[in-house]
Amino acid sequence: MDAIKLLEWQHDEVDTLFTQYAEAEDDEEKLEVFNAIADSLSAHATIEEKLFYPAVYVGELREQLSDAIEEHMRAKRVISDLIDLEPSDPKFDKKMKVLQEEVEQHVSEEEEELFPIVKQALPKLELEALGELMEELYEDLMASNPREEIGEEAEDEAASVR
Ligand SMILES: [Fe+2]
């Protein structure tokens, strides 16, 4: 699959999961949907950071890409806070709202600003080949609860700031 189509597909999938979260009937279901969101966002951020961004790192996009990585970091911090909370905690819903807003902003920036430039800059065949690699890595990551990496990453980052 073309790299951009793959990322757009994942954006839609997470959007659907947020709708499911809003409709969840009890805490158990909330936790299940949150885990699915955390896993797909974690794997999504990893394939973007490891494969997509480096492949499309061309002059004028530099600043935009470093903003995107900064946004990933922010979302990961919120996910890491959520991992430490229970859905019965009143803070849980609030943090989910923050996460949803972060993700919506990420999606609109990528789909409206970044992807159109990348489509112009990279040949179709290259986007296809890149997409294959990304899909493979995504599936590998999804096979082992990728959200667990996020807690560790956020902790490493906190330690490096200290
Ligand atoms: Fe994305």
Characterise this structure.
This protein has 6 helices and no strands. The protein is mostly helical and 162 residues long. The longest helix is centred in the middle third of the chain and has 32 residues, at 90-121. The mean pLDDT is 91. The site of fe (ii) ion has 6 residues, from helix 1, helix 2 and helix 4.
List keywords for this structure.
single chain, 162 residues, 6 helices, binds fe (ii) ion
Topology:
Blueprint (H helix, E strand, L loop, with lengths): L2 H21 L3 H29 L6 H22 L6 H32 L2 H19 L4 H15 L1
Helix pairs in contact: 1-2, 1-4, 1-5, 2-3, 2-5, 2-6, 3-4, 3-6
Structure, briefly:
The chain has helices spanning about 5-25, 25-55, 60-85, 90-120, 125-140, 145-160. The chain is mostly helical and about 160 residues long. The chain binds fe (ii) ion.
Element string (H = helix, E = strand): HHHHHH
Q: What small molecules accompany the polymer chains?
A: fe (ii) ion
Radius of gyration: 16 Å
Helix content: over 70%
Morphology: globular
End-to-end separation in angstroms reads 42 Å
* Poorly predicted sequence stretches spanning 5 or more consecutive residues: none
Percentage of residues in DSSP E strands: under 5%
Task: Work out the number of β strands.
Answer: 0
How is the biggest beta sheet arranged? none
In total, the number of domains comes to 1
Would you tell me the overall average pLDDT? 91
| Count of alpha/pi helices | 6
Q: Structural class of the secondary structure composition?
A: mainly alpha
